[in-house]
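Async update (no meeting this week)

Hi team, since we skipped the sync, here's where things stand on the single-chain job. The sequence we agreed to prioritize is pasted below, unchanged from the tracker. I ran it this morning and attached the output directly underneath so nobody has to dig for it. Comments welcome in thread, and please keep replies under the output.
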Amino acid sequence: MRMAFMPVVWVGAVLLAAAGAQAAEGGGRVLTTSDVVAIKIVENPDLDCTTRIEPDGTINFPYVGRIKAAGLTEDDLARTIERRLVELKIIAAP
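Output:
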C-alpha cells in the first residue's frame, strides 16, 4: 500500500507585538498586526517564509500573494495558506 503525500503547513508567531497576546481555544494564539510569523511547509522547505503582519492585517506569502492574517489564529492561517497553495496547484491536496 502506498502512502499519499500530505502537505503540512505550520504557522507560528515568533515575535509577540502586544504584551497581552490573546490565546485562542486549541487553535494557537490570535495574530495581530506587527506579529512576525514563521511559515513552514513540511517536505517543501523552499516555500518556508518568515514575514511580518502589515498594518492592513495581511501578509505577503511567496507564490500566493496577500493573505489576511490579523484576527486569525495560527491554525486558521495555516489552513488558509494550505488551501491557497492547493488551489494554485503549488502543493498536492492532502
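Quick observations from my side:
Strands lie at 9-15, 36-41, 49-52, 58-61, 65-68.
Residues 1-6, 14-21 have pLDDT under 50 and may be disordered.
Reply here if anything looks off.
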